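ingest -> validate -> predict -> emit
validate: passed (alphabet ok, no gaps, 260 aa)
predict: started
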Amino acid sequence: MNSVNKTMYIPLYGKAYVSKKGLFINDKKAEEIWEENSFSLKGKSKSKWLAYYMGIRSAVYDEWLKQQMAKLQNAAIIHIGCGLDSRIIRVGNESHKWYDIDFLEVIEERKKYYCENPNYQMLVGDARNCKWLDAINENASAIVLMEGVSMYLSLEEMKQLIDNLCNKFEKISLLVDCYTTFSAKISKHKNPINDVGVTMVYGIDDPKAYQNQELIFVKEHTMTPKKYVDELKGLERFVFAHLYAGAFSKKLYRLYEYEK
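emit:
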């Protein structure tokens, strides 16, 4: 498994960790997978602060997705770079057709823990090569999630992906978290993904950089809403609020919503 694929174990650990502590999300599947396998992580990858950040980020994505599903009741849900995430269980798909997309090795690993059904399919695919879109029959509307993915794609690769999505779907809602260019520069030395061998990442400073003539930037979301930070107690809440949810964190990491 290559280094980018190995990064899926970092958020898996984070979600299992916070779920077990009863914080932010209820993710028994992450707990089950982690306890069953005990994947090898080291250094900053197993930081409790990073785990809290991963947990809150997932909660924010889950909340946004539920809102979009209520608005676009027949939309296809497309989770690009799904890893071992259990959002399909946490949120559920009901009347929506749901597609989890990732590399071959990841999907092979994922199929050990998840089962497909008429409304849920796991597709082998690369965000830089959108042949997997041909396997999706829906073309009216899509809700697209890219959690922890954009930093592995150059600006040109992201714009090509967005063009392909726009060519496929009449209406799109997209949520994507991004590194800033400053964060991308320092990531070579100060990023937990270094612990699994990743050294090349990308960032943007202007959310409009991902726009094309059809997909437009709607708004920036906070990655660490106060209601989730307040689930922490005492010194942990103080430290997280100032170091991970404060002004410095915004210099590193942003969360953007787009629509077509």
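Confidence is low (pLDDT under 50) at residues 1-5, 191-198.
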